[in-house]
């Protein structure tokens, strides 16, 4: 078996495979958020106001869609950096998803509070 012609011209496959696993993790996260939105729309009560569960469900579905799309964008940027031998670019994805989910949690807490106080 002959070695590759120029080993320095090709990035290590382990980095590419790790990048793909990271993309799959972001896709799973997006899918879980969408599934959570569907579950809220299907099984949750009105959450204090008539439109409460619909708003939370829509928020979760949109955050899930955004997470999947941003994960793909991040994968492309990382792949380009790996191929060019540059450092990986910084990402805003993790703080943005965390802030969006935290916002949904605050909305749910307020709606549950309205539900409890209305009893």
UniProtKB/TrEMBL annotation:
Pfam family, one: DUF202
Membrane-related topology note: Multi-pass membrane protein
InterPro entries: DUF202 (IPR003807)
Residues annotated as transmembrane: 23-44, 51-72, 92-114
Chain ranges of the DUF202 domain: 14-79
Intracellular or extracellular location(s): Endomembrane system
GO terms for cellular component: endomembrane system
Swiss-Prot/TrEMBL keywords: Membrane, Transmembrane, Transmembrane helix
Protein name stated in the entry: Putative membrane protein
Organism whose genome encodes this protein: Blastococcus colisei
């Amino acid at each position: 078996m002959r070695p590759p012609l120029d080993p320095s011209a090709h990035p290590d496959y382990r980095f590419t495979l790790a990048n793909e696993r990271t993309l799959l993790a972001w896709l799973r996260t997006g899918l879980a958020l969408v599934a959570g939105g569907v579950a809220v729309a299907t099984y949750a009560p009105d959450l204090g106001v008539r439109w409460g569960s619909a708003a939370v469900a829509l928020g979760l579905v949109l955050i899930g869609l955004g997470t999947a799309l941003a994960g793909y964008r991040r994968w492309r940027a990382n792949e380009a950096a790996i191929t060019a031998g540059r450092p990986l670019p910084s990402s805003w994805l993790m703080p943005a998803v965390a802030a969006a989910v935290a916002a949904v949690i605050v909305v749910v807490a307020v709606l549950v509070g309205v539900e409890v106080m209305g009893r």
